[in-house]
Design goal:
Elements lengths: L18 E4 L4 E4 L2 E2 H7 L2 H9 L9 H19 L6 H10 L9 H20 L13 H10 L5 H13 L7 H11 L4 H12 L8 H12 L4 H10 L17 H11 L5 H21 L9 H11 L7 H23 L16
Antiparallel strand pairs: 1-2, 2-3
Helix pairs in contact: 1-7, 2-7, 3-5, 4-5, 4-9, 5-6, 5-15, 6-7, 7-12, 7-15, 8-9, 8-15, 9-15, 10-14, 11-13, 12-14
The protein binds acetyl coenzyme *A (ACO).
The site of acetyl coenzyme *A (ACO) has 19 residues, from helix 14.
Length: about 350
């Protein structure tokens, strides 16, 4: 029997053509191109058909707008029946309500439902009435319009495009693995996306950016930032937005997002403080764990970017989920085509009958 690895650390579970995370070099390659090049050259709507190509085709990026319009009434009806749930619970309920059989192909159905459900929960969180999608707009521009009730600036929808492309796929992360396990049972794409979303919501995965802002708020007026961080570490708390299972150097997505945040004028003061705080936290983490490189991960600048776009922190993970739906669906299809059930073994350490 092969050796047991807690958390499957270092275990290669699948083969994929979708993305490669090089944790030593700090490099993310997505379908043969570095993430920096994708963000530089593509919007979310031009990226997705290329990323899905050969697995989950769409005839054109115009399909996204039409699909959003088609699914809106369903999403609106489901949300109207939900009371007292958090934004991520609402999005999870909407996704779980989707039928396995639908006129839209399942990858487009899932993406369209996320593209309208996430701005809808932002709108609800801010106390506004839901706004219907506009098929003529890009996903990012329409998202911001539906979420905030006003047309975004070019810088704002460019920042959201950069964010959604950056988080679309990232190797065998926990939520993608969950999506692939479900896909391997032939349960269908909707179930895979729901599984991915459930895994993403935990604070050790996609739930970190809200707490990053809480920390920024707490420390922006603190006279003793260093002392506060040390106390946090001494009491066993983790610095949110730092550390990664694979990266031993800075997560390349942190730099891409920092660049996108820099283009948003509304965040300048916050960004300057966040950069100072990042330096202080990294210094302390190096002293705290000299043998374990702990660097900035994607969630740190995700927090700043989403805050600058005016999203409430309770909805940050939902926005991440929209981007990652592109990855979950492609991985689910890739897994289905292998036709192989994912079914590892466990090592029983309980009692045996005498
Ligand atoms: N702050 C302080 N200490 C940390 C941190 C951190 N952010 N991350 C890891 N450590 C410590 C651990 O406590 C552990 O110490 P120990 O050996 O004394 O127990 C040591 O470093 C090794 O950590 P592991 O738990 O083995 O690292 P793992 O690979 O499991 O963790 C993880 C990765 C979960 C992301 C972790 O770094 C963490 O909790 N970070 C904070 C949450 C966060 O930012 N999550 C978003 C990740 S990016 C994403 O999923 C999209």
């Amino acid at each position: 029997m092969t050796e047991f690895k807690e958390g499957l650390e270092g275990v290669v579970a699948v083969e994929t053509i979708l993305s490669k995370v090089d944790g030593d070099a700090g490099r993310l390659v997505v379908r043969g191109r570095d993430i920096e090049d994708w963000v530089e050259g593509d919007t979310f709507d031009t990226f997705v058909p290329k990323f899905w190509s050969g697995l989950a085709d769409v005839s054109s990026d115009k399909d996204f707008g039409a699909a959003r319009v088609q699914i809106f009434a369903h999403v609106e009806a489901i949300l109207a029946g939900l009371r007292g749930l958090s934004p991520i619970e609402c999005v999870r309920a909407v996704m779980a309500s989707l039928p396995d059989e639908h006129e839209l192909p399942p990858h487009l159905l899932c993406l369209a439902a996320m593209s309208v459900a996430v701005p809808a929960v932002i709108r609800m969180e801010n106390g506004g009435a839901l706004i219907a999608p506009d098929a003529a707009l890009s996903t990012a521009e329409d998202f911001l319009r539906m979420a905030r009730g006003e047309s975004p600036t070019a810088e704002e929808h460019a920042a959201l495009d950069a964010y959604l492309v950056t988080v679309a796929d990232h190797g065998m992360n926990a939520s993608t693995f969950a999506a692939r396990v479900v896909a391997s049972t032939d349960a269908g794409l909707v179930s895979s996306v729901v599984a991915g979303l459930c895994a993403l919501k935990g604070p050790l995965h996609g739930g970190a950016p809200g707490p990053v802002l809480d920390l920024l708020d707490e420390l922006e007026s603190s006279p003793d930032v260093g002392g506060y961080i040390l106390k946090e570490l001494e009491s066993g708390r983790r610095m949110m937005g730092f550390g990664h299972r694979i990266y031993r150097v800075r997560d390349p997505r942190a730099e891409v997002l920092k660049k996108a945040v820099r283009d948003l004028p509304q965040t300048q003061g916050r960004l300057a403080f966040a950069e100072r705080l990042e330096t202080e936290i990294l210094t302390q983490l190096r002293q705290w764990k000299p043998d374990r490189p702990l660097e900035t991960n994607v969630e740190y600048y995700t927090a700043l970017l989403q805050e600058a776009l005016g999203f409430p922190r309770s909805t940050f993970t939902c926005v991440f989920g929209l981007g990652r739906t592109v990855g979950w669906t492609a991985h689910a299809i890739e897994q289905q085509t292998t036709g192989r059930l994912i079914r590892p073994r466990s090592s029983y350490v309980g009692d045996l009958a005498a």
